[in-house]
Amino acid sequence: MLPQSTIYIAGHRGLVGSALMRRLLSPLSGEEQRSARIITRTHAELDLTDQHAVRAFFEQEKPEYVFLAAAKVGGILANDTYPAEFIHQNLAIQTNVIHEAYRAGVKRLLFLGSSCIYPRDCPQPMKEEYLLTGPLEPTNRPYAVAKIAGIEMCHAYNRQYGTQYLAVMPTNLYGPGDSYGLQNSHVLPALIRKMHEAKQRGDKEVVVWGTGTPRREFLYSDDMADACVYLMNLPDERFCSLLTPHASPLVNIGVGEDLTIREAAERVKEAVGFRGELVFDTSKPDGTPRKLLDVSLLHRLGWKARIGMREGVGLAYADYLANVADK
Hints:
- The protein is α/β, with parallel strands linked by helices.
- The strands form four sheets. A six-stranded parallel sheet has the order 2-1-3-4-5-10, with helices on both faces.
- Helix 1 packs across helix 7.
- The radius of gyration is 19 Å and the shape is globular.
């Protein structure tokens, strides 16, 4: 991407998209200040499930680069409660955007998925080539199938049309702009809200779903955005080396380390300053036993995460206090 490039961020208000906005509008030290034309649309302005609206948008705006971060997302409860919405909306969004990007001659597209695309009992750490090698986690299978279809769509268009569409699979994300709803959020933002509210009420305990033993990898959203921009900016030879005809155009984005849900809860408890006890409700589902990404490919390409878990949770809690708590 050149400083004057036209860039469309689909889903710019979400956790992923807002981090991409910050990264593109605030270059790192030593980088040239961008004069790029960043294109965004709210859902009210453009319904990405509407094929005709998406086609009209691409024909009018003609973006050169696309970050496809728009998606219907949620935690275990939301995925298990609304499976039809998760598969329908995600399939529609990515089908429309990828196809219209092709018709409009977009130079490069980055499709963002999730580490839940890998088999439930996948060998750890999960390599890119483990995709489609076993059954998925039942609680989020509709979402995972939709994301797998997006990866395959990128692969198919690259093979048939010579496009340069890359799929990236971030690990569990958290950070500014996250959703803190207790019914539909992911584990870290839910814990931040629970512990903050328990602290405010003076509660003596906070209930955490599951046994606390599953292991998860967590990546701060601004690190994720930096990795995405880094990949999109790879020179042609290195970028195209990721788009081989015989393998999915897939790159894992993570930190390469994990911890238990209990340990993650303890980190949140420390950041929030909650002094009560953690109680684990073993009647609730644990989800996948472990999800750790193999990020050796990303490291070979020259990128590594910068923000550690303790710093990241502190920053996320500060964002919650500034923008969500008591609002």
